Amino acid sequence: MSELTKKTDEDVIEKPLPPNWILQHPMYQHLMNLDVGDSAQVHAAFLVYLDLAEVRQWKEVSGVGCSELRLVLLEGREKEGEPTQMVLPLPVHRGLSHRSVRSVLARGSPMLLCVVASDSSLVYQRMCDGLLTPDPPVGIQDQGRRQHRKRRQQH
């Protein structure tokens, strides 16, 4: 092997992250500076931020404070050119009132509620003002009513 293509163990081994890397992350520090007074909700917002920005590849994800509700909200675009969506990260142990939901919906953006469990798993639920017809399940086609009826057996 030539000097240019030779790899050593030092090139392959990555340095481990420090145990408190979350506290040093610029977005976590930004979320803490929003001063909402609930470190569990800020931690939940950071986990949702990582999921949206790193895993789901959302664009322009940022944190905003909602002083009236004392919450951190996230804003972002699912894809380039799509409208901004509001995401409400919520630890599983924290309650949510109708007033809180209406206050976030009043901002005008589509809203996702993201519940963060103690094991860091995330569950997203789309919220809207009023009733929303759900999307049909993937892979199911309408076959018409007649095909689903059973014929009565004649005795």
What does this molecule look like?
The protein has 155 residues and is α+β, with helices and mostly antiparallel strands. The mean pLDDT is 83. It is 26% helix and 22% strand. It has a five-stranded mixed sheet with strand order 1-2-3-4-5, with helices on both faces. The chain has a domain at 23-127: 3-Layer(aba) Sandwich (Trna Endonuclease, Chain: A, domain 1). The protein has helices spanning 9-12, 21-24, 26-33, 39-55, 98-105, and strands at 59-66, 71-77, 85-91, 111-116, 122-127. 17% of the residues are buried.
Structural features:
155 residues; alpha+beta; Trna Endonuclease, Chain: A, domain 1; five-stranded mixed beta sheet; 5 helices; 5 strands; tRNA processing; nucleic acid binding; tRNA-endonuc_su_Sen15; tRNA_endonuc-like_dom_sf; TSEN15 tRNA splicing endonuclease subunit
Low-confidence stretches: none
Largest sheet: 5 strands, mixed
What is the name of the CATH topology of the domain at 23-127?
Trna Endonuclease, Chain: A, domain 1
CATH class of the domain at 23-127: Alpha Beta
As a whole number of angstroms, the C-alpha radius of gyration is 23 Å
- Main sheet strand line-up: 1-2-3-4-5
Query: By helix and strand content, what is the structural category?
Result: alpha+beta
The averaged pLDDT comes out at: 83
Pfam families: Sen15 (PF09631)
Domain tRNA-splicing endonuclease subunit Sen15: 47-136
Region (Disordered): 135-155
Family: Belongs to the SEN15 family.
